[in-house]
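Methods: holo model generation. Sequences were used as deposited, without trimming of termini or removal of tags, and paired with ligand SMILES retrieved from the corresponding compound records. Each pair was processed once, and we did not select among multiple samples. The sequence and S-adenosylmethionine SMILES for this entry were:
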Amino acid sequence: MRERDNIEHLPVLVKEVLEGLNCQPGGLYVDATLGGGGHSLEILKCSSPNGKLIGIDWDEEAIRVAGSRLKGFQHRLTIVHDNFKNLHNILMDLGVDAVDGILLDLGVSSMQLGDRNRGFSFKLEGPIDMRMDRSSMVKAFDLVNILPVRELEQILWKYGEERFAKRIVRSIDDHRKKFPITTTRQLADIIRTAMPHKHHPKKIDPATKTFQAIRIAVNDELINLETVISGSIDLIKKDGRFCIISFHSLEDRIVKQSFRLNEGRCTCPSDMPQCSCLKEHKIKILTKKPITPSENEKRKNPKSRTAKLRVAERL
Ligand SMILES: C[S@@+](CC[C@H](N)C(=O)[O-])C[C@H]1O[C@@H](n2cnc3c(N)ncnc32)[C@H](O)[C@@H]1O
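and the model returned the structure below.
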């Protein structure tokens, strides 16, 4: 059996992202989720000959893959290995005050999902790890085997919206009392058996929501997202753009609400830059409804199915 399936990550909504960023020659952009470098490559091309890109990822493997893929652009590209929640400090360290556009393409890459040793997928046998940043201390193994029942239930409920959270965690607890749960397959089987067969979802594997929930918790994904949005809007130049692609409703809700908050919607009679409520109008939301992939893209890249792109412009 192959240790690892070498899967290339196909970037989603590429044309829409370039339009959303209003990508121009000479612009300075941040791809805060570098991954396999797919979006970065297109941004570098469309901002040529003198545009610049700062690419960030907290996964060393992504840095390596993207670095090699983008080596022809070294003179216009800076790659940073860090958590995007530190974007403000990253830019300060690089001596950059403001940029023309920021892209976040959330979630895991196909490279991460397809590597059995990373333990993200219930389809591949591997250790339950799920850390995108391999230097971080907490693995999925720790949450599954050590976390008190009540806290684990909360994670499944909050981050997976899993209605069978209680049953699943009870079954996990029964198993872990006998032996540690170490592999993705073991965990997936426990979940599938815990869920009454007649309630098994038709379109997704019964383990999908639990795996998503544990991954979100291991990587602090929603907190990182809230932090980066609130901390990054001031880093965008006037008329610059913020593009965020999300893949599930929890992420999309945060993006939508954070954009609205910074749009400074108010109930004051006049929507002037400074209303009597003193709300600041930092951005204009350009996508009243999120942009979703075409049927053609969904067919070619089924992983794009749930993608939603929201775009805001800095005022
Ligand atoms: C969906 S992939 C991006 C794929 C990329 N747009 C491409 O075209 O290849 C998401 C990437 O974001 C990274 N990531 C997720 N959360 C992060 C965070 N808080 N800080 C830095 N990188 C993060 C993941 O490690 C992963 O490589």
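The two ends are 54 Å apart (CA to CA).
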